[in-house]
Amino acid sequence: MTKDTGTTSEYRTGAYYAEQKAGIVRVMIDMYCKKNHRSDIKSCKECRELFEYARSKTYACRQEPGMFCSACPTPCYDQVMRERMRTVMRYSGPRMLYRHPILYFRRLKLRLLRKK
Ligand SMILES: [Zn+2]
Question: Could you tell me the distance, in angstroms and rounded to a whole number, from the CA of residue 31 to the centre of ligand 1?
Fold first, then answer.
């Protein structure tokens, strides 16, 4: 986290959400990779690539803060990446509750926030 005094609070809110989302996505990709690609400590090259892609999209996102990619009306992932991400989410989504309950609920909270 960097200290940035020259930005508006609105921007900071967006970056805050982006950071949270990126963190959650990272955990989910790692979880998927560990089990399905049998990588030990770090995610495999393919999954790192997926994460970097997801992160850059998250930070570039112009949707309201808290918007999740899965619920986005204007998805910006390309076909291949979207499919890969969907596979990861399908695997890791339900498992988040048991392995990372705090992150799971944080993700849920972000989702609920945008439904208000
Ligand atoms: Zn992998």
Answer: 9
